[in-house]
Write a structure and sequence with these properties.
Rossmann fold, globular, about 45% helix, alpha/beta, about 250 residues, single chain
């Protein structure tokens, strides 16, 4: 389950800005025939079409709108790679008055949205030979930061679902990739106060397509991520990625 992006069809959620935009551009640079820019507002994708022509196809997709995801999957039924990049972040501590409200919002997009995307696009990936499903998780999926505890909880849940998808979709030949960036130079990163330590989104985009080419599950693209990933490596290899038989006492 390894392949290059050249001559493939790619779909990127949240493709109009930030990491998603750079992922779209990286796919095109690597020779993708077509990239679906999956966005909530189709007008937001117009600059991408102006820049890249008909190699970019806007499609409406909102992670908390199941009908839009189903419709997008029906339209983009020729996909080889689905990159679920879109997500939301609320800066809420566990003791904040809005903690439960924030967690519900983040879970709906970051976790239920992933499940909706996987369910909608898995059949298309299977019919097109397997392909790849890429999920943007975070270092926050394995380390909780108090000032964004609810976000970290949602990303831990999305990472858990991603692990399940890795096993569930293996039989149909779909490579699942879990990406764990640290602070990245995006509007979300700026709003979270990471502008002084954030790194380029190109690191994330490049690492994603390298992982697809190499058949990797875990991706730790930037310096903070690599520090976390290095410490986590033994557990990742010996537990998460290991073929462990479930036993019932």
């Amino acid at each position: 389950m390894t392949f290059e992006a050249k001559d493939k069809t790619v779909l990127v959620t949240g493709a109009n800005r930030g990491i998603g935009k750079v992922i779209l551009e990286e796919a095109l640079q690597r020779g993708a025939t077509k990239v679906y820019a999956a966005v909530r507002d189709l007008d937001s994708a117009k600059p991408l079409v102006e820049a890249h022509g008909d190699r970019v196809v806007p499609v409406r997709l909102d992670l908390n709108d199941p009908a839009s995801i189903t419709a997008a999957a029906e339209l983009a039924n020729d996909v080889d790679v689905v990159v679920n990049n879109a997500g939301v972040l609320k800066q809420s501590e566990a003791t904040s008055d809005d903690a439960i409200e924030s967690l519900k919002f983040e879970m709906d997009v970051n976790v239920y949205g992933l499940i909706r995307v996987a369910q909608a696009f898995a059949p298309a990936l299977k019919s097109n030979g397997g392909g790849a499903l890429v999920q943007l998780n975070s270092v926050a999926s394995v380390k909780t930061f108090a000032n964004m505890a609810t976000y970290c909880a949602s990303k831990a849940a999305s990472y858990s679902i991603t692990q399940g998808l890795r096993d569930s979709l293996r039989e149909q030949g779909t490579l699942v990739v879990s990406v764990h960036p640290g602070p990245i130079q995006t509007d979300m990163g700026h709003d979270a106060g990471f502008q002084d330590i954030a790194e380029s989104p190109t690191l994330v985009a490049s690492a994603i397509f390298d992982a697809i080419a190499n058949g990797q599950f875990h991706v730790w693209p930037d310096s903070m991520a690599q520090q976390v990933g290095g410490a986590y490596q033994s557990f990742a290899e010996n537990v998460v990625e290991a073929n462990m038989e479930e036993s019932v006492a």
